[in-house]
Amino acid sequence: MRYAFTVAQTRALEEAAFAVVGGAALMQRAAHGLSVRAADLLAADRGAVYGARVVVLVGPGNNGGDALYAGQRLARRGCAVTAVQALGRPHAAGLAALLAAGGRLIGGDRFHDQDLAAADLVIDGVLGIGGRPGLPDDLAALIAGAEARRIPIVAVDLPSGVDTDTGQAPEGSVRATRTVTFGTFKPCHLIEPAASRCGQLDLVDIGLDESRTVPALAAWEPEDVAAHWPVPGPTSDKYARGVVGVDTGSQVYPGAGVLSTCGAVHGGAGMVRFLGAPRSAEIIVRDLPNVVFGEGRVQSWLVGSGWGDRADGDDVIAGLVAEGLPLVIDADGLRYLPAALPGNVLLTPHAGELARLLGIERAEVSADPATAVRRAADDTGATVLLKGATQLVAAAGVETVEVAVPGPAWTGQAGSGDVLGGLCAAVLAAGVGTRTAAVLAASVQAMAAARFPGPIPPQQLARHCASVIGEFSAALLHDLLGFVGSARSVDRAKPTRSSRSGPHGRDGRR
Ligand SMILES: NC(=O)C1=CN([C@@H]2O[C@H](COP(=O)(O)OP(=O)(O)OC[C@H]3O[C@@H](n4cnc5c(N)ncnc54)[C@H](OP(=O)(O)O)[C@@H]3O)[C@@H](O)[C@H]2O)[C@@H](O)CC1
Ligand SMILES: Nc1ncnc2c1ncn2[C@@H]1O[C@H](COP(=O)(O)OP(=O)(O)O)[C@@H](O)[C@H]1O
Ligand SMILES: [K+]
Question: pTM for the complete prediction?
Answer without folding.
Answer: 0.93
